[in-house]
Amino acid sequence: MGATSTNPLLISLINMTIVFGVLAVLWFVMKIIYLVDPTKNKVAVQKKNKNLAPAAVTTAASAAALAASAAQKKVEEEKLVAAIAASIAASEADDEIMAALAAVIIHKTQMEPMKLPHHFFEN
Fold it and tell me: Are residues 46 and 22 in the same domain?
């Protein structure tokens, strides 16, 4: 066979040299592929079309439809809150329940303009 070494330091250095040599060769191959990429022009055209598409789709009619749907949703939420308030008032005239309902309504009106998500991500 030939001379063999049992020195672990020498074996680990040879293995690391091989690993980083292969990584350097792969990096070089990736750079060559990047330089001669045949799909580069297609990607640029697709990005340009994506940038133009939202401007073409957004019109005054779609903006008005979005505003109308948001207004309709808000009216439905207000009707729901009014119905809940009426049912609680009809079932019991307890001050604590009415205070809790008032707190919920106040909280909703204060938080709505901020458009916060219903979930929060903690650090």
Answer: yes
Model confidence over 50-99: pLDDT tens digits?
Answer: 766 555 455 666 766 777 788 888 888 888 887 787 777 666 666 777 77
Q: Which domain holds residue 41?
A: 7-57
CB atoms near residue 12 (< 10 Å):
10
Q: How many CB atoms lie within 10 A of CB 85?
A: 15
Structural domain count, the chain = 2
What is the C-alpha separation between 26 and 31, in angstroms, rounded? 9
123 is a domain residue: no
Q: Which two tokens stand for residue 24?
A: 């350097």
For 12, how many CA atoms within 13 A lie in the half-sphere containing its CB?
3
For residue 35, being part of any structural domain is answered with yes
Q: How far apart are CA 89 and CA 74, in angstroms?
A: 22
3-state secondary structure of 114: helix
Domain for residue 25, yes or no?
Answer: yes
